[in-house]
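Q: what does this look like with DP6 bound?
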Amino acid sequence: MTRRYQAIVPSNIAFLKYWGKADESHQWPANDSLSMTLDGLKTTTLAVKDTALTDHAVTLNGQKVTREDRRGLKIFRHLDHLATICDCAVKLAINTHNSFPTGSGIASSASGLGALTIAALAAWTESSNLDALQKNGYSRERLAQLSRQGSGSAGRSLFGGIVVWEKSSAPESQSIYPLYPQEHWPLCDVIVLFSEEEKAVSSTQAHRAAWTSPLFEPRLAGLKERRRLMEAALQARDMWRLGPLLEQEALEMHGVIMSAQPSVHYFGTETGHFLRLIREIREEEGLPVYFTIDAGPNVHLILEEKYLEKLQKILQLRCPQRQLLIDRMGPGPHLSVEA
Ligand code: DP6
């Protein structure tokens, strides 16, 4: 009987960004980061053990991916790593699908590498849900650590709600843990799309250049205090305090990216004009809505759920042509099995 293991892992949006690596071979970040796990923007990955295969067979959004492809490289490297860890030689047929455009700055590697980790280990250990996977030696914390080895931000998608990834003092002592559950504060993420094309410079490449920016070390020196302020605002559920920190953080990360060598511009003038529009809307309407941007051109608007309808009406009037993806804070991953 062929059992198909299905992992569903949501994307996450970083409030405090993971940018730059202290040690790339250990996926040791240069700083702590903090994110909100999303709900509807997710990757669904099916894994099936297949003794007839001589190598893993991977399909991403309906297209075959090979070891040589840019996207395949990360996937196959991670599968090889996981196979060594669980000592499993049987090859897998992997079928993976994103609910959002891949490579558009909506962290597809976070949900993708998270879902790959869970689905592959579930298939190899024949675990039909997350509790069974834990009994087979893969606790959520361990899955998060393994996922971040595939892609740093993926580790944070292994928990729901607000999640922290701590750099700690050595690569082996990093920790990833949930700070607040989803119920703590009903927050939304309205993603405003400016491009659905795959970005020209991957975040993995751009991470490497961070150290060449004259802004990078001053940024690192200030992050402890920003994290403290963000956590206090989250605790108090105060968007007027959290919001300015979100914007400062995103703009600072892009300042580092643009001032590094090579310099990368992940967003252009259209996105820039939109950021100004959001500030106008906030002031004119008294609406607590703030932006953050990951390594891509699209804007994430963070706001409380009670203001979502009002924001949608305003955006419909002021930029009716813009496509929006609307999501909220979610509970984290899910694993199931089909015969
Ligand atoms: C801007 O996790 O994609 O989204 O570890 O090289 O795979 P790799 O990088 P990745 O970097 C994400 C950076 C970010 C900020 C964040 O999610 O914290």
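The chain has a mean pLDDT of 95. The radius of gyration is 20 Å.
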